[in-house]
Amino acid sequence: MYDRHVFLLQLSFDTTFIMLDTTIIDAVITTPRLKLTRLTRADRDSEEFAWLHSLYSDEQASFWSLGGKTNSLDESAAKVKRVLSSNSQTSPSYQYFHLVHDIEDRNNPVFVGTMNLKAVENGGLILPAQLSLTGASEPGVLSLEVGYGFLPAVWGKGYATEALDGLLSACSKAKEALKPYTKLYVQAVVNHSNLASQRVVEKCGFTYLGDFVYEGEPVFIGGKWREKDTVQVWGWRSCE
């Protein structure tokens, strides 16, 4: 997915993915202003689904999302099913999908967006090997993608940066959850026009690796259909 305050992260090499023990990394991550709560299901009549529909059906929040905004509850339900499902039945995947709440008013937390970290999807954007951090494809390295989205009402407050930094920090500390891997690599692919997300990944310690020009089947993103587009590739890895 490409997103506006939502950026797509893809892998450029083959590896074997595992399902990490989700009991090891905290189900709830808190930062000074935010709470990230891991989501594993969102039934159609649930509060969680209503929150996600409000995000997915918002034209501004979905501007950089492939396909744009959803236009019905059914479309939102289909998207929820996609983002919460595992990547493959034959290749177990590692996935964290978090709801993000503003908790500055501790008595009245407010849903503001989502933060997602997961293994790359089969059939995703294939990047050349040179657009990876040195050592990213070595044995013992777990490679993931990340995406996020926030409601327009909270843009400009630094929530995306704070939430992403909090999630990466939690993953870095959960060394037991990485076994048999010993290092974590996250790669971000940000549309060249998505300046907000470029600033977010840079602030969170990602390294700019270069540009990639996509040419292929038309995709709807950024308000129009595109057969050719340029994205920036960024990489991040946990401390050893």
From TrEMBL:
Residues 33-207 form the N-acetyltransferase domain. Pfam families: Acetyltransf_3. GO terms for molecular function: acyltransferase activity, transferring groups other than amino-acyl groups. It comes from the Eukaryota. SUPFAM superfamilies: Acyl-CoA N-acyltransferases (Nat). This is N-acetyltransferase domain-containing protein.
